[in-house]
Every structure is written in structure tokens, then in C-alpha cells.
């Protein structure tokens, strides 16, 4: 122990103003926020609400949005209009409503709504 104490360099303790110390603590608290996922989920829910509002206005859909079935896209399809939902092969979709003809209203994982032809879907 005597040899270790002999070679140890002692650093003087610097005094920090109380205001600076408080600022540093608050910055550390912000950086160590454990619940960072809440921000992204809040942003996602805002985006979903915006998409739902746009869907209700565009499609004049005033009923409750209920998922009738789940389907996957058989192939990738580009949308020709804003009302059509672009698809990628294997994408999971929620079928919201069956419309007259061969189209159904679907919702994708991002919360976007649109018409999809039944021919492009695989039901389980």
C-alpha cells in the first residue's frame, strides 16, 4: 500500500457553481430518458389519426372502422389514383369494407387506406 500511495497523483476537486450543477443534472436526465418509445408511438398515432381523417373525408365513410378479415398482397401493384392503395408483395392488409364490384377497402401497416382489387389479395 505504501508504494501505491506514493505514485498516486491527487487531483484537486474543482468547485462548480450550483447553477451549472443543476443544468448538468437536467441535461443528464433528458439524455437518460427510459421511455423514448413514447415519442415515436405518439407521432405514429398522430399520423394514423390524420390518415383516418383523410380516409373518412375521401371515401365518405361514416361507419365504425372494423376489420372484417386479414389478407396478404399476392403481388406488387402501383396505385393509379390517390384512392387506390399501393401494394408490395407479401404485405399484410386489414380488410375494412367490401364495396360493390371487385374492390375492397383495405388498410396497410402504416395506417393508409385505399381500394384494392380482390384479385391481388390472398385470404387465409
UniProtKB/TrEMBL annotation:
Please, which domain of life does this record's source organism belong to? Answer: Eukaryota
Tell me the ranges covered by the Helically-extended SH3 domain, including all copies. Answer: 55-121
Q: Which UniProt keywords apply?
A: Phosphoprotein
Q: Entry's Pfam families?
A: hSH3
Gene Ontology terms: cellular component: plasma membrane
User: Which BP terms from GO are recorded?
Assistant: integrin-mediated signaling pathway; protein localization to plasma membrane; T cell receptor signaling pathway
Q: This protein is called what?
A: FYB2 protein
Q: Which organism is it from?
A: Prunella himalayana
Amino acid at each position: 500500500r505504501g508504494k501505491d500511495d506514493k505514485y498516486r497523483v491527487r487531483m484537486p476537486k474543482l468547485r462548480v457553481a450550483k447553477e451549472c450543477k443543476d443544468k448538468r443534472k437536467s441535461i443528464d436526465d433528458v439524455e437518460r430518458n427510459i421511455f423514448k418509445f413514447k415519442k415515436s408511438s405518439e407521432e405514429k398515432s398522430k399520423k394514423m389519426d390524420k390518415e383516418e381523417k383523410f380516409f373518412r373525408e375521401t371515401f365518405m365513410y361514416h361507419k365504425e372502422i372494423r376489420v372484417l378479415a386479414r389478407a396478404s398482397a399476392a403481388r406488387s401493384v402501383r396505385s393509379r389514383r390517390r384512392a387506390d392503395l399501393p401494394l408490395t408483395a407479401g404485405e399484410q392488409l386489414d380488410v375494412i369494407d367490401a364495396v360493390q364490384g371487385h374492390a375492397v377497402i383495405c388498410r396497410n401497416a402504416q395506417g393508409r387506406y385505399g381500394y384494392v382489387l380482390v384479385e391481388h389479395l390472398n385470404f387465409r
